[in-house]
Amino acid sequence: MPNDASPETTDVRLLCVEDNPDDVELMALALERADPQRKYLLHRVDDAGGFTEALAQSQEFDVILCDFNMPRFSPYAALQILLARRCSTPLVVVTRAIGEEAAVHVLRCGAKDYLTKDKLGTLPQIIERVIAERRRVLEQERLAQELDAAYRRLKRLSAKLVVAQERERTLISRELHDQLGQTLTGMVIHLHAAKRAPSEDAAKLHTETAMEMAQGAVKQLKTLSFSLRPAQLDLLGLVAAVQSAVQRIGEPAGLAYTVTSRGKEPAVLGETASVAVRLVQEALNNIVRHAQATHVVVRLRFLPGGAIGMLVVDDGVGFDKQDVLSGPTSEHNVGLHGMIERTELAGGRLHIRTRPGVGVAIRAVL
Fold first, then answer.
1. What is the mean pLDDT of residues 56-61?
2. Number of domains in the chain
3. Is-contact 65 19, C-beta < 8 A?
4. What is the pLDDT of residue 316?
5. In this structure, is the dihedral angle defined by the CA atoms of residues 229, 234, 235 and 240, taken in order, positive or negative?
6. Residues 101-113: what's their mean pLDDT?
7. Which of 74, 195, 267, 285 is at a distance of 20 to 30 A from 129, taking alpha carbons?
8. Given 115, 141, 167, which residue is the final one in a domain?
9. Is residue 30 part of a domain?
10. Reported confidence tier of residue 101, pLDDT bands at 50, 70, 90
11. Is residue 3 very low, low, confident or very high in pLDDT (cuts 50, 70, 90)?
């Protein structure tokens, strides 16, 4: 909008609602004399049809100057048209004579100011003031819209947080019940069997089986603990934790991998470090399940202010991102949706670049 530039270089577009062309010429001369550094572009109309057509066909006007006494039109009619069109262009009444009661009434109806035609020398100041006031109003509206959009995003993220927490609890419950719980139950069965065994050899066999299952339970517990928060993250740092996570998932699947980092890792990691590990884990799990990849590259970047950049690239079969992400949640996209939600809840953004046959690149900044 022209209002955003400096007064010395900005053309000011004025819509003059005036039935006397000579008065428009007088306004143009007064503006040129009072403010020669600015260029004022005046467009005259004198009835409702011309006013509406000018608003519809021309670029946005900075100010509307409207005569008070016209046989075919009035400031009130102009204000009604502006209201119906939801047009915020300020209207200033410029007239030869107007009573105090009429002036107060037209201001109450929406006019921003009024001026008598014998004082046109002050017109540039009035125009500048109403333009500045409009800028403030538009800025307040913009900030209010941004605040409202941020509030809506916060509500959506809060809802996603509850869903994500419930999903995590469900997964942990399933892991405890289906794996660790069954292993411990088997241990108890073999220990009872050893106690009731008819011979020492039979008791020893049941005891050894229970010991093997106990070792398996410890391994399952360590795996579950690592998936929640790797011990390496606090002891050795993020790079080591990511290296361990990639190794745990990639090696059993026969997946070649490369883990690199840029920047200096901070001595004390923020909360987003654990999110970065979880994103890498989920990305690797998706690659193993769906990508048919042979090699994956994981790059970490430590950015100013404690931010963490993460990139995971594979050489797999790729997928149609629009088709996968726009469909209902299923086993084929629940991992990607979970990664997006986890990143957003941590205040970051996640981008996915892929197409069928060219692999997948997942980039996140936390």
1. 78
2. 3
3. no
4. 92
5. positive
6. 89
7. 74
8. 141
9. yes
10. confident
11. very low
Question: Residues 6 or more apart from 315 whose CB is under 8 A from it?
Answer: 293, 294, 295, 296, 359
The pLDDT, as a whole number, for residue 160 is 66
Question: H/E/C letters for each residue in 131-166?
Answer: HHHHHHHHHHHHHHHHHHHHHHHHHHHHHHHHHHHH
Which residues neighbour 314 within 8 Å (Cβ) at sequence distance 6 or greater? 287, 291, 293, 295, 296, 297, 359, 360
C-beta neighbour count of 120 within 10 angstroms: 20
Residues near 198 by beta carbon (within 8 Å), at least 6 away in sequence: none
Q: What is the DSSP string of 292-352?
A: --SEEEEEEEEPGGG-EEEEEEE-S----HHHHHHS---TTTHHHHHHHHHHHHTT-EEEE
Give the model confidence (pLDDT) of 216-270 as tens digits. Answer: 888 777 767 666 666 667 778 889 889 988 998 899 899 999 999 999 988 877 7
Beta bridge partners of 114: 93
Domain that holds residue 80: 2-141
pLDDT(199) > 60? yes
Residue among 309, 227, 235, 236 at smallest CA distance from 272: 309
Tokens representing residue 320 in the block: 């149609």
d(CA 321, CA 299): 22
Query: SS in 3 state form for 193-218?
Result: HHHHCCCHHHHHHHHHHHHHHHHHHH
Measured CA distances, 91 to 138, 187, 353 (Å): 16, 85, 50
Q: What is the CATH number of the domain that holds 242?
A: 3.30.565.10
Q: Are residues 170 and 275 in the same domain?
A: no
Strand partners, 116: 95
Q: Which two tokens stand for residue 149?
A: 């959009």
Q: Are residues 238 and 360 in the same domain?
A: yes
Region of residue 197 (left: phi > 0; alpha: psi -120 to 50; beta: else): beta
> What is d(CA 155, CA 160) in angstroms, rounded to the nearest whole number?
9
Query: CA 255, 256, 260: angle at the middle one, nearest 5?
Result: 125
